[in-house]
Structures are given as structure tokens and as C-alpha cells.
Amino acid sequence: MTKISLAAHPFLLGFDQLERLAERAAKGAEGYPPYNIEHQGPNGFRITLAVAGFSEDDLSITLEDRQLVVRGRQAEAEEGRVFLHRGIAARAFQRSFVLADGVEVVSAGLENGLLNIDLRRSVSDSIVQTIPISRK
């Protein structure tokens, strides 16, 4: 079976990056930690990740080539602790979100075990440009 490429369509000039973005987004699709994405107002978004047990020092948020990457790694448990049952996940994680052009990170905050990352899409003015035709 042949893979059909969106970038190969003659009406989609310059969209070859779209497939690469979709592939990058699919790579970060594991199930931990759970998250929500909310639409806030006309141009706002909020990503909320459930990171119970993680402190600010255990988390990092980076923006790498339009990809928002949230990483978490807790310090090793104290020696001498004996668990009769251990049901709280304390594993390291990495969660990625691909951001569209014009979407910027406004703020991030940790409250009650939830990491909130606020995003805003900047609205650009519509530009109409006339292209002169020259005789060669």
C-alpha cells in the first residue's frame, strides 16, 4: 500500500511541515499524566496536567521548535521507607504538544496537584497584497 502525502497535492504548496508536525504529535501520545485542554475566550487555551506528588522543582516546561514539552522527574524515595501498597505513580514522564504558528505560552502554575499552562493565539491582521506582473 502506498502512503499518500498531503504535501504532494498540487494545491497545498509549502505544507510539507504539516506531516512532520503530525508525526511529532503522535509520538507524544502516551497516557501519563492525564491532561485536559480547554478553550478560554476567543484566543486562549489552557492545558492542565494532573501531576500529583510533583513539586515545581520536579517539573520542567520547554518550548522546542513549536513543540511544548513538559517533563517530570521526582527525586528518589528516601531509603528505609517500606510500602505495604504503592498505588501512586511516581514515574518520570514527558508530554509534548505541538503549537501552531502564533500560539505563545503566557504562563504556567502549579496548584493542588494540577499544572496549568496558559496559551494565547496572537491574531494577525489580514494582509491583501497585489503582485505586479512584469513583461520579460
Note the overall shape.
elongated
What share of the residues lie within helices?
under 10%
Please tally the helical runs, counting DSSP H or I stretches of 4 or more residues: 1
End-to-end separation in angstroms reads 46 Å
Main sheet attributes: strand count, strand direction, barrel closure: 4 strands, antiparallel
The strands making up the biggest β-sheet line up spatially as 1-2-7-6
Task: Give the ordered list of helices and strands.
Answer: HEEEEEEE
At the fold tier of CATH, the topology name of the domain at 31-77 and 87-123 is Immunoglobulin-like
E-strand count: 7
CATH class of the domain at 31-77 and 87-123: Mainly Beta
Using the 3D structure, state the CATH architecture of the domain at 31-77 and 87-123. Sandwich
Helix/strand structural class:
mainly beta
> Radius of gyration, Cα only, in angstroms?
21 Å
Uncertain stretches of 5 or more adjacent residues: none
- The pLDDT mean sits at 84
Strand content: 35-45%
Verbal overview:
By secondary structure, the chain is mainly beta. The chain has a domain at 31-77 and 87-123: Immunoglobulin-like, CATH 2.60.40. The chain contains one helix and seven strands, in the order αβββββββ. It has one helix at 16-27; strands at residues 35-40, 44-50, 59-64, 67-72, 93-98, 103-111, 114-121. The longest helix has 12 residues, at 16-27. The chain is elongated and about 85 Å long. The N and C termini lie far apart (46 Å). The model has no long low-confidence stretch (mean pLDDT 84).
